[in-house]
Specification:
Blueprint: H1 2-33, H2 38-60, H3 70-97, H4 100-105, H5 110-120, H6 131-152, H7 174-204, H8 208-227, H9 242-270, H10 272-277, H11 280-293, H12 300-327, H13 338-347
Helix pairs in contact: 1-9, 1-11, 2-3, 2-8, 2-9, 3-7, 3-8, 5-6, 5-7, 6-7, 6-12, 8-9
C-alpha cells in the first residue's frame, strides 16, 4: 500500500492543486473586473498565505529545519521574485484584459516553456535522431502555436451570444486581447523559471512549509512595492466587497499557500516537468467554473487554441516518456530497488542536482 501511495500521491496532489487553481482564476477574473488593482490582489494573496502557513511551518518543521543561510535566503528572494511577484504582476494584469478561460489555457504551455528553458540553460539535451526526439521537439512548437491562436484569434462567442454586445470593454478591443495574451505568456514564463529555481532550492533547503513562508514574505513585500507603480491611494487597499474578501482568502490559503507547498513537494518527488505536465487541468476547471457558475462567454478562438495547446502538450509528454523508457534513465521506485534508485539518482543528476524529468505516469 505504501508503494501505491508513493506512486500515486504526486499525481493526485498536483491534479487537486490545478483544479483549485482553475476555479480561483475564474473568481479572480470576476474580482479584477470590479476594478481592484491586480497587485493589491497579489499582495493580499501572499500575505494571507504567510499568515496561514507560519504556525504550520513553525511547529511542523522546527526539528528538521536546517539553518537559513544568506545563500538560501537570496535564492528564496529570487524564487519569490520570479514565482510570486513578477509572475502574478504580468499574469493578473493579462487576466484583467482577457478571460479566465484564456488565462488558464496559457498554463497549458507551462511544460513546453519549462522544457525550452531547460534546453537554453543546458539542464536538458534534445536528441533529434529518434522519433521520440522529434516528438519532444515538435510538442512545444505545437503548444506555442496554440498559444499564438489564442492570442491572434478570438472568434465568435459560443455561449450566451445575446450578451456579446453587453460584454465589458476588455473584450471589445482586439488590441487589448493581444496585449492581455502577451502579458499572460510572460507571467507563465516567469512561473516556468520559478520551477527550475525551486528544484535547486529543494536541495539546499528541503522544508516546503518554511520555504513557502519565507517566499511568501518576500513576495508580499515585492508585490506591495510593485503596486506603487499603478496606485498609491490608501483607499485601494480597503476591501468592502464580500466576494473580493472571500476570493482573496481562498486564493491565499489554497491557491497560494497550500498549492505552493504541494507543488514544491511534487517538484522534489517527480521533477518540475512532471509537476507542470497536468496544467491543462487548470483550463478545464476554469472553463467549467466560468461557464456553469459565473455564466461567462466562451469564445471559439479559446476552444481551438486550447485544443492545439493540449495536443502539443501531450505529444511532448508521450515522446518524453518514451524517450526516458528507451534510455532507461529513470525507473519508478519500488521497495525492492529503493536503494538502487538512490544510487542511480546520485549518478544521473543534471546541473540542478536532480533529474528534471520523471515518469509521466504513476
Amino acid at each position: 500500500m505504501g508503494c501505491i501511495d508513493a506512486k500515486w500521491a504526486p499525481l493526485i496532489v498536483i491534479n487537486v492543486i490545478y483544479t483549485i487553481n482553475g476555479m480561483v482564476n475564474a473568481l479572480l477574473k470576476k474580482v479584477l473586473d470590479g476594478g481592484i488593482n491586480h497587485m493589491v490582489v497579489a499582495t493580499y494573496r501572499l500575505g494571507i498565505s504567510t499568515l496561514f502557513l507560519l504556525p504550520i511551518a513553525y511547529f511542523w518543521e522546527r526539528k528538521t529545519r536546517p539553518k537559513l543561510t544568506a545563500s538560501v535566503s537570496f535564492q528564496l528572494f529570487i524564487s519569490a521574485l520570479f514565482g510570486a511577484s513578477l509572475s502574478q504582476y504580468f499574469y493578473l494584469l493579462g487576466l484583467s484584459y482577457t478571460s479566465a478561460t484564456l488565462g488558464s489555457a496559457f498554463w497549458g504551455t507551462l511544460p513546453s516553456i519549462t522544457f525550452i528553458m531547460a534546453l537554453i540553460f543546458r539542464f536538458e539535451k534534445l536528441n533529434m535522431k529518434t522519433k521520440a526526439g522529434y516528438g519532444v521537439g515538435l510538442g512545444p512548437i505545437i503548444s506555442l502555436a496554440g498559444a499564438l491562436i489564442l492570442t491572434m484569434y478570438q472568434g465568435i462567442p459560443l455561449s450566451n451570444p445575446q450578451e456579446h454586445a453587453m460584454v465589458s470593454n476588455i473584450h471589445k478591443g482586439h488590441e487589448n486581447w493581444i496585449k492581455g495574451c502577451f502579458l499572460l505568456f510572460i507571467g507563465v514564463a516567469f512561473f516556468s523559471s520559478w520551477m527550475l529555481i525551486q528544484a535547486k532550492i529543494q536541495l539546499s533547503y528541503p522544508c516546503p512549509y518554511s520555504g513557502t513562508v519565507i517566499l511568501s514574505v518576500f513576495g508580499t513585500l515585492q508585490c506591495a512595492l510593485l503596486s506603487l507603480i499603478k496606485t498609491r491611494d490608501v483607499e485601494d487597499w480597503i476591501l468592502r466587497d464580500k466576494l473580493t474578501i472571500i476570493t482573496l482568502i481562498i486564493a491565499g490559503v489554497f491557491s497560494q499557500g497550500i498549492a505552493t507547498v504541494g507543488m514544491s513537494w511534487c517538484i522534489e518527488k517527480r521533477g518540475p516537468v512532471f509537476t507542470s505536465a497536468f496544467s491543462p487541468v487548470i483550463l478545464m476547471s476554469a472553463t467549467l467554473f466560468d461557464f456553469l457558475i459565473l455564466h461567462r462567454i466562451v469564445y471559439l478562438g479559446s476552444v481551438i487554441g486550447s485544443v492545439v495547446v493540449v495536443i502539443g502538450l501531450y505529444l511532448f509528454l508521450w515522446s518524453k516518456s518514451k524517450q526516458i523508457a528507451d534510455s532507461k534513465i529513470v525507473k519508478l521506485p519500488t521497495s525492492a530497488v529503493g536503494e538502487a534508485k538512490e544510487e542511480e539518482d546520485h549518478t544521473n543528476v543534471n546541473k540542478l542536482g536532480r533529474l528534471l524529468v520523471s515518469p509521466m505516469t504513476p
